[in-house]
Known about the structure:
Blueprint: E1 2-7, H1 13-26, E2 31-36, H2 39-48, E3 55-59, H3 60-68, H4 76-79, H5 83-86, H6 91-94, E4 98-99, E5 102-103, E6 106-118, H7 119-125, H8 136-150, E7 158-161, H9 166-176, H10 195-209, H11 224-227, E8 231-237, H12 241-248, E9 252-255, E10 269-276, H13 283-294, H14 299-303, H15 313-318, H16 325-333, H17 347-367, H18 371-387
Parallel strand pairs: 1-2, 1-3, 7-8
Antiparallel strand pairs: 3-10, 4-5, 6-8, 6-9, 6-10
Amino acid sequence: xxxxxxxxxxxxxESVEQITRRFEASNPGVKILVKVVPSGEIRTALxxxxxxxxxxxxxxxxxVDCSRNELLLDLNIWLRQNQELKSLFxxxxxxxxxxxxxxxxxxxxxxxxxxxxxxxxxDKAGIPYPLEGWTWNDxxxxxxxxxxxxxxxxxxxxxxxxxxxxEYMGLLLLTAGTDWLSPDRKRxxxxxxxxxxxxxxxxxxxxxxxxxxxxxxxxxxxxSDLLRNESGMILDYYNMLHEFQPHLKDDLGVAGLPxxxxxxxxxxPWVCGFGISSKTGNSELAWSLLCELTCTSNExxxxxxxxxxxxxxxxxxxxxxxxxxxxxxxxxxLANSAQLPVSAGxxxxxxxxxxxxxxxxxxxxxxxxxxxETLDDLxxxxxxxxxD
Length: 388
């Protein structure tokens, strides 16, 4: 008997295979084949009915989409008989695996974006560190003061960095109470160019062009500016915490995502998990392997703790993260999670945002294009492409 496991992350293959070899030893006659397959191909194969996988590794919106289309088995079949399993996970993370009453995956890792800052910039300016529940207006006021005290004119440093990449600007829209697209992802008009979207993007553009406290950038997953003391505070992936801590040490601070005064205190999660294909012919065996991969302290669940938050309470404590105030800040922020966002595995939709939203944002931040006119034009283009 053979089980096939599709994973997207090549760096996890060795750990997965160590676990599967033990599983084979405990289950004579069972062979496990682990394949590294890009997330887009995993998704496409499931939707096309062409996947040979019993277990699949999925991310973000792919989890939701595959669950709604019943391409994954509902894990409640087993969880109702093993009530204690659910309690092994942090509730704020496990709930992200639940979609409309179904449990699509067991989570392996979680993260999101938020604010990193250098305490030295704040100390020099005599500014208290960011408090829980701060707003984007607080962020702007702090950035202006940090710039005034810490930066000499012309030295190329900035108090703040928020990228004009669609993912990062999408966070601002989320905290303003809107998004690039309608919830069903069929319409941009009324979302991309809504009053809230225009106000949020205008606020971000003003940081760069009016207040001159942030640089014009569309950088993605960047850490060099904070490490080189070129920025005082940045919005980026919390996954970089393990890269910052050894260098900045006690000077490193972490804060939750601000929100607009009339918006929502909310953040966008990033979740990876394993689910069971509805096409599997060995569901009980697949469930047993799924539990081995995700419900125990093992090579894989320990490996992902370096850059992510461990969903398992035991592994989180084993890694010492329960004693790390910065990790605990991120775990607390996960309680503010919105629905899972579009995954890069949804190739057509993610490419659409890359191809059209990013150039529009570039015109705004680099060229000073009018925000409302640009977003109005963008909404028209996106509506047409979504129909196509």
